[in-house]
Amino acid sequence: MQNKSVPATVRDVNTPVRRVAYIHDTNEYGGVEVFMLLLMKYLDPKRYAPVVLVPGHTDPLRGSPARLIQQVEDTGLPLIRLPVRSESAGLGLINQIQKTVKVFSDNKFDVVHIHTCRPAGARISTISAWLRKAA
Fold this sequence. Notes:
single chain, 41% helix, alpha/beta, Rossmann fold, globular, 135 residues
């Protein structure tokens, strides 16, 4: 009897390409950024479409490092700047989550890969991804 299993490297043409959001939220360039770029570089483009999301801050202490943004742009990967949180504590957080959910919905991400140094950034991304999935 002949083995009809398909090797793991062969992609079914009916399988959609998974859109992966790589969320970055730190203002330093180091090992995490190198790892992120390497990970995206070696993803199978027939299976995954990475998109990098960074904070929309222009303040260098609250935004992603210019070096990372430049390297993402040099590789030709899509880059999205997430909405900036307003100064209002409660309403600003809710507003930022709503805007982030909209970004996730508009881009139809299948996977959210979070790389943050701030707990708030990870929480906002996690809650937004969960709300997007629940909608």
